[in-house]
Amino acid sequence: MQVKSLSLLTAGVVLGLVVMAGCAVPHVPSRIIYEDPVNFVRLEQDSEVLAEWPPTHHAHPFLIEPERLRKILSGLMVQEHWIALKRWMRGESPLVPAFTDEELTLLSVRLAEALAEANYNERVTFYLSEPQTFARRIITTGGLYIQGTELHMLLGNWRIIYGIPAYGMIYDRRYPMRPTAAKGFDLRFQPTEAVVPINNSLFDVIIANAKDELVIDLSKLDSSGPSSSLRDPCLKQETDCEGS
After folding, report:
1. Which residues of 108-136 are buried (b: 16+ CB within 10 A; e: fewer)?
2. Helix (H, G, I), strand (E, B) or coil at 185
3. Which residues are bridge partners to 150 per DSSP?
4. Alpha helices in 43-100 (DSSP H)
């Protein structure tokens, strides 16, 4: 009887280990570029990049000045999803900057560093958090990569209140490009002329395989030149400048 009980106990332990192994979340190889107690920027291997298929390779390493990257990040906007009744009463939801000034200062420098160090099969991910209590924090997470002249940007979470579970995996830090809850927003960019449309097939939409990225054509930003507000004041008042 004791032998039978011991066998059943052993079988239960083995079964439990098998179940835990089956439920284990695969590790994503990564390397840290920047980290402090509440934020990080790191490089992750992109599973969609195939070494034997060059068209999937990212254009990394990629050099960009932090000032230029800050201007691009400043153009990222978030538009929250409103229910039909609310849209009928108030119209479309407003566009809100995706990042605060403090976040832009951090990201523009650290993301530029990461892009300069990235390999062709890596993408840059970031994690920004604001602790509220011991077990709650407000998080903004996402990632980006360069292909050709296009910047691919994704926000997994935007100012989401994340409750740290009492047990189990803490997903928000481990997988910054994945949403921790249903996404209630869309990522936009200004100027809209630089946005590259993504054509998802109906089949991809049905099986939830549609691309959740914002694609920005950097060459269009370059060709547009600086805005009039950033030009020399004499360009606005040519007559006065000629006479001076």
Report:
1. bbbbbebbeebeebbbbbbbbbeeeeeee
2. strand
3. 147, 217
4. 66-74, 84-90
d(CA 8, CA 2) in angstroms, rounded, equals: 10
Question: pTM for the whole thing?
Answer: 0.76
Distance, CA of 149 to CA of 164 (rounded, Å): 38
Question: What percent of the chain is modeled with pLDDT above 90?
Answer: 58
How much is the average pLDDT of 127-149? 95
Report whether pLDDT(183) > 90.
Answer: no
**Domains in the chain: boundaries:** 27-238
End-to-end CA distance of the chain: 107
- CB–CB of 212/144 below 8 Å? no
Q: What is the dihedral of CA 110, 230, 191, 209, to 10 degrees?
A: -10
Beta carbons within 8 Å of 81's beta carbon, 6+ residues apart: 93, 184, 185, 186
Nearest CA-CA partner of 103 in 19, 39, 148 = 39
Q: Which position has the token pair 């935007």?
A: 158
E-strand stretches of the chain: 30-35, 40-45, 76-80, 95-97, 122-131, 136-147, 150-163, 185-189, 214-217
Work out the angle between the directed axes of helices 66-74 and 101-117 (0-180°, nearest 10): 130
Residue 23 sits at the vertex; the CA angle it makes with 182 and 161, to the nearest 5 degrees, is 30
